[in-house]
Amino acid sequence: MKRIFLIITAIFMTAPVWAQQSDSLATVPQQAAVPAAQSADVPAAADAETLWTQANEAYLNSDYAGAVRLYESILDEGLFSMKLYYNLANAYFKTGEIGKSILFYKRALILSPSNDDIRHNLAIAESYTKDRIESVPEFFVKTWVRSMRNAFSCRAWTFISLGFLTLVLVLGLLYMLSQRLSARKAGFYGMLVAIVLFIVTTWFAAAERRDMIDRAEAVVMSNAAPVKSSPDNSATDLFVIHEGTSVRVVDTLDQWSEIVIADGKKGWIESSKIERI
Questions:
Q1: Calculated CA dihedral for residues 253, 228, 216, 93, nearest 10 degrees
Q2: C-alpha to C-alpha distance for 180 and 141, rounded to whole angstroms
Q3: What number is the average pLDDT over the span 238-243?
């Protein structure tokens, strides 16, 4: 039994390491206290902190188009965070660009899946879309598991799984080293429970990581986009979807993407008319 425990420990020690890398995201500075000018033009040599401050000031002064340009300039620097995506989504919503707004709310939600403010604003933005698509009913267990998984980010689930791994090791040592039978039983059965919880939380971390890098979901950016029976402009129009509608990309061919919408309908759309989350 001791040999089995040591083998299990060696396996589990390596299992969660990859997940720690999934949430190592670049972030932008918090809003600085120094006021900045509300220029419509983005300073060419401004650093991220200056751009962040100017963008927030522009938003507070109702210069939403200027805020969008400044937030986008931070993204152009290769920096991103939940707060940046969220603020940019709010600014796009104020300018009436519903598709872009939904896109960045969803990107923010990937980084912070339990954030109620993001979900609330996303629901408001989605209420402005033209398409009213009924989702295919989902098995309640799948819905429940997803809601549990979305309670924490990938990083949080990784740390939780590492905590359970530590618990496995502690309880394993208790089982092997304790002289009392009751303590050995508690260590053994507690270790089994901790192993199950470790596996579950590691799977949650892996699923959150997959959502971050998969980019299968996309948002329609065009006011009206025909979905065709094949990747050809001369193909039959199956239906039309509008700005802000979320779709899932299942295949690509040249300049076309095969998509599936919430009610299960599928077809081909020009890739330029959608943007992946």
A1: 130
A2: 41
A3: 94
pLDDT of residue 138: 65
| pLDDT of residue 167 exceeding 80 | yes
Per-residue burial over 177-194, b = 16 or more CB atoms within 10 Å of its CB, e = otherwise: eeeeeeeeeebbebbeeb
Please tell me the predicted confidence (pLDDT) of residue 136. Answer: 65
Distances, alpha carbon 170 to alpha carbons 9, 39, 44, in Å: 11, 58, 55
Q: Please answer whether residues 269 and 262 qualify as being in contact, where contact means their C-beta atoms are separated by less than 8 angstroms.
A: no
**Residue 122 half-sphere exposure, CB side, CA atoms within 13 Å?**
21
The strands making up 274-276's β-sheet, listed across from edge to edge, are 237-242, 224-228, 266-270, 256-260, 246-253, 217-220, 274-276
With tokens 């959608």, the residue in question is 274
Host H or E run for residue 73: helix 64-76
